């Protein structure tokens, strides 16, 4: 019985510590990463805004726009996030925004695509806000804010059959 009490106290202590650290971290963050691709900007823009069957573990469902911007839902496992198009300037810029209000985070992703002599660069910038202090601690101290961006850029490279070197 003493072991169970000790384990419970350790777990409660860890949750309290994560909450206190999370409360001291800023809610808002900006994370940005870039990859160079041997593709034309138009091809990369089409991949970003087109069918997402090249992204492993993600199912994308287009939703009715209802007279507003393009909307879609990304399903991964038992979780899903709904997005809407916030800006589009083909083939150089695309921005999406999370529209779900019940998540512990919110924000936008901005893709900036620039032509180069060898193809193009694709920079993704996440402007996010994490309201839940425990999730804030986990996203900043354990997972890192660039994990999703890195996975996206790596999948984009695989779609085109080329390795990508991700730069800050």
Secondary structure layout:
Layout (H helix, E strand, L loop, with lengths): L1 H23 L3 E10 L3 H9 L9 E5 L7 E6 L2 E11 L3 E6 L6 E11 L4 E11 L2 H11 L3 H13 L6 E2 L1
Antiparallel strand pairs: 1-7, 1-8, 2-3, 3-4, 4-5, 5-6, 6-7
Helix pairs in contact: 1-3
Provide an overview of this structure:
It is a single chain. The protein has 168 residues and is an alpha+beta fold. It has helices at residues 2-24, 41-49, 133-143, 147-159, and strands spanning 28-37, 59-63, 71-76, 79-89, 93-98, 105-115, 120-130, 166-167. Strands 2-3-4-5-6-7-1-8 form an eight-stranded antiparallel beta sheet.
Key words describing this protein structure:
168 residues, alpha+beta, eight-stranded antiparallel sheet, 37% strand, elongated
Please sum up the structure shown.
The chain is α+β, with helices and mostly antiparallel strands. It has helices at residues 2-24, 41-49, 133-143, 147-159, and strands at residues 28-37, 59-63, 71-76, 79-89, 93-98, 105-115, 120-130, 166-167.
Low-confidence stretches: none
Largest sheet: 8 strands, antiparallel
Taken from the alpha-carbon principal axes, the silhouette is: elongated
Mean of residue pLDDT values: 93
**Ends apart, CA distance between termini:** 50 Å
Q: Which percent bin holds the helix content?
A: 25-40%
């Amino acid at each position: 019985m003493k072991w169970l009490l000790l384990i419970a106290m350790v777990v409660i202590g860890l949750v309290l510590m994560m909450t206190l650290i999370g409360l001291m971290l800023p809610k808002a963050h900006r994370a940005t990463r870039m990859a160079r691709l041997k593709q034309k900007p138009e091809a990369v823009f089409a991949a970003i805004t087109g069918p997402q069957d090249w992204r492993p573990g993600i199912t994308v469902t287009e939703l009715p726009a209802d007279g507003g911007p393009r909307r879609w839902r990304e399903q991964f496992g038992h979780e899903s996030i709904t997005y809407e198009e916030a800006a589009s300037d083909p083939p150089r810029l695309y921005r999406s925004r999370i529209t779900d209000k019940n998540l512990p985070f919110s924000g936008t992703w901005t893709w900036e695509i620039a032509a180069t002599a060898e193809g193009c660069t694709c920079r993704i910038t996440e402007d996010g806000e994490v309201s839940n202090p425990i999730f804030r601690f986990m996203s900043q101290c354990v997972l890192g804010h660039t994990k999703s961006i890195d996975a996206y850029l790596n999948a984009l490279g695989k779609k085109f059959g080329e390795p990508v070197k991700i730069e800050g």
